[in-house]
Design goal:
74% of the residues lie in helices and 0% in strands. It has 411 residues and is an all-alpha fold. The protein has one domain.
C-alpha cells in the first residue's frame, strides 16, 4: 500500500508541476515514469498493468482527434477564423464568438482537440490584432471545458463515465445539453465582465485583409458531413470508439489526404498521458490505498436526499482537482454502485469532473495545452487563472447539480 501511494505521489508531482530544471520531464513522461515504477516495484504485474489501460477511451480519443485534424487539413478553421474576425469587428464580440464556437465544437471532437487545433489560431489573433492575451486564452480553455460536458465524447472523463457507468449517449445528451448551454452563458458573462476594460481598450484593425469569399468548399462540406454522420450514429446507439475511428478512416480514404499532414496534428502525448495514468491509478486501487482513503472520506454518506447528493457533488469537484479528474474517476468507480441512483451518480460525476477542469489551471489537460501553446504571447499563469476559474467552476457545478436533481428527482 505504501509503495503504491508513493508511486502515485511521485507521478502526481511530475504531472502537476512544470518541467523540473534537473529532470526535463513533461506531463506525459511523468505518467509514463509512474507506470513503469508500478511494474518495476511490483505494485502490478505486467499483465495487470496492460489490463488496466482502458483501450476504448484511448481509441475514442484517437478517432476524434483524427477527425478534428481534418477540420484544419481542409483549411476550414483558417477560413472560418478570418471570416469570424471580419464579422465580429470588436474584441468583445470576437471573445463571444470564441466562447460559443469552442464550446459548441468541443462536444463533437473533444475539448483537448479543440485546444490543440484552436490555440495556434487564437495566438495568431492576439499577435496580429494586438488583442489582450489573457481573456482570449482563457476563453478557449474554459469554454472548451464547459461545452464538452454536453456529450459522452466531449472529454476523456465523460468517456470513462460513459464506459464504466453504462451511460447512453442519447439520454446523456438530453440531460446535459441544457447544462452546457447555461454553462457557456455563464462562461461568456464572467469573461466579458472581468475583462471589460481590456476588451474596450483593444482594437481590431479593420484594414486587415478581407475574409475569404468562400468559407466552405467541397472538402469542407464532406468533412462536416462525416462529423454529422458520426453524431447520428452515436444517437442511434453505435459504439463510440469505433464509430469515431471509422469516421477518421472514411476521411482519409475519401479525401485522399497525405497522412503526413495530419499525423503531426494528433497529440499523441495525450494518449500516452492517459495510458500511464490508467496504470498508476490501478496500482493505487489494487494495493488497497484507494480503499483506505475512501473509507475515511466516502463518496456517499448514506443519509439520502438532496443534501447527500450535493455533498457527493462537492467531493467530485474537489477530488477531481486534488488528483486530477481521470485518476479520480478510476479511484471512485467501485464506490458508485453504493449510491441509491447510480445513473444519477455517474452523470453527476461526469458533470462535476468536467467543470472541475475549470477550477484551476492544472484541472484540465485542455488548460495545459492552451498554456503551453500560448507561451509566445504570455501563456496562462496559475493565480490569474483562478480569478475566472473559481467562480466559473462553482457556478456551473451548482447549475449542473440543480438541473440533474430536478431531472432525476432526489429520491
Amino acid at each position: 500500500m505504501v509503495t503504491a501511494a508513493l508511486v502515485f505521489a511521485v507521478t502526481y508531482l511530475l504531472v502537476a508541476g512544470r518541467r523540473l530544471h534537473w529532470m526535463p520531464l513533461d506531463r506525459p513522461a511523468g505518467a509514463l515514469v509512474g507506470a513503469v515504477l508500478c511494474v518495476a516495484l511490483r505494485v502490478l504485474t505486467p499483465a495487470q498493468a496492460l489490463g488496466a489501460i482502458n483501450g476504448e477511451t484511448l481509441v475514442l480519443l484517437f478517432g476524434l482527434m483524427g477527425v478534428g485534424t481534418f477540420l484544419a487539413d481542409v483549411g476550414l478553421l483558417e477560413r472560418a477564423s478570418a471570416a469570424l474576425v471580419a464579422r465580429a469587428r470588436t474584441p468583445a464580440r470576437l471573445l463571444g464568438v470564441l466562447v460559443w464556437g469552442a464550446g459548441l465544437l468541443a462536444p463533437l471532437v473533444t475539448n483537448d482537440a479543440v485546444c490543440v487545433l484552436g490555440a495556434p489560431l487564437v495566438v495568431a489573433w492576439i499577435k496580429r490584432y494586438r488583442l489582450p492575451p489573457l481573456p482570449f486564452l482563457l476563453a478557449l480553455a474554459t469554454a472548451s471545458n464547459t461545452g464538452s460536458v454536453a456529450t459522452l465524447v466531449g472529454n476523456p472523463q465523460n468517456m470513462l463515465c460513459g464506459t464504466l457507468g453504462g451511460l447512453v449517449y442519447r439520454e446523456y445528451l438530453l440531460h446535459m445539453a441544457p447544462v452546457a448551454v447555461l454553462g457557456l452563458l455563464v462562461n461568456h458573462l464572467i469573461l466579458a465582465w472581468l475583462f471589460k476594460r481590456d476588451l474596450v481598450s483593444a482594437h481590431i484593425d479593420l484594414d486587415s485583409p478581407a475574409p475569404p469569399a468562400q468559407v466552405l468548399d467541397r472538402r469542407s462540406w464532406f468533412t462536416i458531413a462525416v462529423l454529422a454522420a458520426i453524431v447520428v450514429a452515436y444517437l442511434l446507439g453505435a459504439d463510440l470508439a469505433w464509430t469515431a475511428v471509422a469516421g477518421f478512416t472514411a476521411l482519409m480514404v475519401a479525401l485522399r489526404a497525405d497522412p503526413q499532414n495530419f499525423w503531426g496534428r494528433i497529440d499523441w502525448s495525450i494518449l500516452l498521458f492517459f495510458g500511464g495514468l490508467f496504470v498508476v491509478v490501478e496500482g493505487l486501487v489494487v494495493s488497497g490505498a484507494a480503499g483506505f482513503a475512501l473509507g475515511h472520506f466516502p463518496v456517499w454518506s448514506g443519509a439520502g436526499g438532496i443534501g447527500s447528493y450535493l455533498r457527493t457533488t462537492g467531493i467530485f469537484l474537489i477530488g477531481s482537482n486534488l488528483v486530477s479528474n481521470v485518476p479520480f474517476i478510476l479511484v471512485v468507480k467501485t464506490e458508485m454502485a453504493r449510491m441509491p441512483n447510480p445513473r444519477l451518480g455517474w452523470e453527476l460525476l461526469a458533470m462535476a469532473s468536467t467543470f472541475a477542469g475549470n477550477l484551476t489551471l492544472l484541472g484540465s489537460v485542455a488548460n495545459i495545452i492552451v498554456a503551453e501553446r500560448g507561451r509566445e504571447v504570455g501563456g496562462l499563469a496559475f493565480v490569474p487563472y483562478l480569478r475566472v476559474g473559481v467562480p466559473l467552476a462553482l457556478a456551473t457545478t451548482a447549475i449542473g447539480a440543480a438541473w440533474l436533481l430536478f431531472v432525476f428527482g432526489p429520491g
